[in-house]
Design brief:
DNA-binding, mainly alpha, MerR family transcriptional regulator, Multidrug-efflux Transporter Regulator, Chain: A, Domain 2, MerR-type_HTH_dom
Length: 233
């Protein structure tokens, strides 16, 4: 299935899917034209990632589960202990908020030292450390996203650049063969479009990008993902 179909069926935004691929948690096959071809197994894997990430399981733990270096029961036991600590730490927040309300504290007269000392005190038995270090499990973390690296206009200019390179190659070839390229401008334009339709999928399949994409800020994400997967293999 395509990236769009994968996004629709899983309910996971494409930016998150790309992030999990870059982290090595997903490794979809590539079709003949170089585009991703997700399988049903990829969909099931993504749904597992979605569930466990929403439960607060870390990327490192997911990677250990994938590699067989950890058991799900052990990961969940650790997460349950963390949740208990988070609840205990949030109890401090509740107490401090209650104290501030009972004393009628105002912003101008607030003495933060006393209350910060309460929040920063060493963890008591059952607490999991400072509460603000714990990520919310209500949704996929915002950190599970790779930045957008290419706009539609940049992709257009990148494709125009690639087409220009192809035409230059055709002109150079005609010159080497002793032909005058100015007499075949229309034929060169048509041949450039056809040749680009062949070379672009081939370049995407082999390198994950084309010459024009990096020049316009596109294609680096694809190249980094492909390099990352190759290094992990």
């Amino acid at each position: 299935m395509t990236s769009k179909e994968m996004e629709a069926r899983s309910g996971v935004p494409r930016a998150n899917i790309r992030y999990y691929e870059a982290e090595g948690l997903l490794a979809p096959a590539r079709s003949g034209n170089g585009y991703r071809d997700y399988s049903e197994e990829d969909l099931r894997t993504l749904e597992k990632i979605k569930l466990l990430r929403r439960l607060g399981v870390t990327i490192e733990a997911l990677r250990a589960l994938r590699d067989g270096r950890a058991e799900l029961s052990a990961v969940l036991d650790r997460r349950l202990a963390e949740v208990g600590g988070e609840q205990a730490a949030l109890g401090r927040v509740e107490r401090v908020c209650g104290d501030l309300r009972r004393t009628g504290a105002t912003f101008t007269g607030l003495d933060p030292g006393r209350y910060l000392a309460d929040l920063d005190a060493p963890a008591l038995p059952g607490e999991g450390g400072p509460w603000w270090e714990k990520a919310s499990a209500s949704a996929l973390p915002e950190t599970d996203r790779l930045p957008t690296v290419c706009s539609a206009s940049r992709r257009l200019f990148a494709r125009m650049f690639d087409e220009m390179l192809v035409r230059m190659l055709l002109v150079a070839g005609l010159c080497l063969l002793g032909y005058n390229p100015t007499r075949a401008a229309l034929a060169i334009s048509f041949a450039g479009v056809v040749l680009l339709g062949v070379l672009e999928p081939l370049s995407l399949h082999l390198w994950g990008t084309t010459p024009g994409r990096p020049c316009w800020g596109c294609g680096w994400l694809e190249w980094m993902e492909k390099t990352s997967h190759t290094a992990r293999a």
